[in-house]
User: Fold this.
Amino acid sequence: MARNRQEWLEKPAFPNTHFVDTRVYTDEALFKEEQDKIFNKVWIIACHESEVPNKFDYRTFHHPGGAELIVVRGEDMKVRSFYNICPHRGNALLYEPVGNAKRITCIFHAWSFDTKGECIDISRGKQGYQDRYECKDAGLREVRTEVGFGGFVWVNIDDASCTLKEYIGPALDMLEEHMSMDLEVFHYHKAVVDTNYKLWHDTNSEFYHDYMHYFNRATGMMQPGYFDRKYTGYPNGHASVGSMSIKYDAYSGSQERAVGWPGLAPGGWILIDIFPGMTYNLRTSVLRMDTAIPLGPNKVIIEFRGLGLKSDTPEQRAERVRDHNTIWGPFGRNLHEDLLGVHGQGVAMRERTDSKWVIHGREENSTIHDEVGMRHFYHEWGERMGRKPFDPYGDNRLAKTEAA
Amino acid sequence: MGQIENIALAAGSRVLVEELVYSTAMRMDEKDFAGYLALCDASYKYRITAYSPEIRKLMTWLEHDHKGMKLLFDNLPKHNSDQSMLSRHVTVYTVKFEDGGKIADVVSGLQVFRTTNDGGTTTLFAVGKMHDRVALGDDGARLVDRTIKLDTRMLGIGFHIPF
Ligand code: FES
Ligand SMILES: [Fe+2]
Assistant:
C-alpha cells in the first residue's frame, strides 16, 4: 500500500543499525563535520608512485578534507606532500596536475622552495624584511605521506594519526600477495557527479545492485558459487568481499582471458573497500582503484585508475587495457550504470526532496547480497562522527511521535 | 589524363569521402546502428583514445572491431544508460589520397552535444578529432578504420554509445 506522509516518515521496522537518515547524504553541516572528523584524520590515497617516477616529479591533489596538496618525489627519491599554497600571499605554488620541479618557484613574487618543503629563496628578502622574516620562517606545511599497499601514495592531514599500516590493519591481507610486484597506472579519468561520496562507496560495498548490470546478472548471479561469497568487516570501517568466479563466456562476445593476474585464479575477484572512500577491485587482468573525493554533500569527484604490472609487455598491457575498458572505461559496460545509479540517488535525495530513510536491512548470512558491508561502514562513520547515522541530530523521535 | 581531370577526380572523391564521414555521424545520431555498420568495411576497427596529462600516457578508452561494435549495439537495450540524445558535429578538415586514390586518410574536427530528454537542454559533451581511413571502390566509399582522439576527458557519468 502506498503511504501517507506520516507513514513515510516513520522509522523502518528494522534495528537502528539497518537504516540511515538521508540527511547523512544531504546535510551541509554534517559534510563539513565529516571533513574535520573523518577526512582530515584518516589516510587517503593521493596518487600512485608510478605517477611520480623520477626525482622532482610532482602531482597535485585535491584532498577531500579541503586542502590542495603537492605530492613530490625528492632528490633522495622519497615522496613527500605539502600544502599547495605559498606562505607569502597564498598563491597556488603549482598549477599543473603533473610536472617536474627541482625548485618550486611561486609565479607571483618568485619565492622558491625545494622538494623537502624548505624555503630556499625570498626575492629581495633582506631589503624588505630585514631580520624580521627569512627563509627559515617560510617553510611549506608538510603532510604525512607513506607509500604502500600496491605502491599508492597515501597522505594524512593529521600529524598525530596512527601509521598507515595501523590504519589498514588486516584489511588488505587478501590482496597483499597480488600486489607484491611493481604496479603501474595505465588508465586515469575523473567523473564529477552530483551525489554524496558515501553513495559511491556504498555501491562499491554491495553486490545486490548486480541487478543493475546486465553483464553481472548474466555472468555472476547465475553462476554456481555466486551466493557463497562472504563479506568480512575489519577495524576502521574497511570491508572485503571474497573471490568470486565470473563466467565470462556467459556474456556473448567475451573472449578467452589470457593475461590474468599473478596468483589470481581465472575468474577470481577480490574487492576491498577502505574507509571512507577508496576501493581496490582486482578482476580479470586489472586492478582498479576508485577514490571518492567529496566537494560537498551532493558533489563528488571520483578518480578512476586502472593498474597493470610494470613489467608488462606491450601485448600484455594492451590486453589489460581492453579488459579494463570494456567493463570499467568511461564507455564501458558497467561503469556508466554504476554512475547513473548514484546520480539518480543524488537527484532523489538532495535537500528538500523530503527523502527520509535509506535501508541497509538485508541479512543473508553475510553473503553477497547481504547489506552488512554498508552497515559496517556506517558503524565506523557513527563512531568517528559521534552521531547516530539513523538519527544524526537526535530529533528523529519527533517523527516517531508524529506517527504515533 | 590532364591536370584538370585529376583535380576534378580528386574533388569528386573528396565529396564521396565527406559524405561517408557525415553519414556515419548522422546514422549514429539517429541510433541507426545497422545503417552505420553498413557504411563500415568488414575489417572495420574503431577506437576512442585520450591523452592523460595526469599520468602522462595515451589511453585507449574503447576498442572494437566490426563484430565488437555490432555486439555493443545489440546489447545496448539490455543496459541501464543515460537516454540523452547526442548530436555529433563533424567538419572534415583534410583528405589525403593514397594508393592511387583507393584509400583516403581523413582528419575531421568533432564536437558532440548532449540534449536532455527532460526540457531539452543542450550542452557541449565532448570535443576531439576524428582520424578515418576510407576505402574507395566501384561500390563507393566505406569506412575502414576510425580513431576518435578526445580532448575532453571529463564525461561525467560516461556514455555507453560510441561517438
Ligand atoms: S604569493 Fe607566492 S611569492 Fe608572493
Ligand atoms: Fe556496479
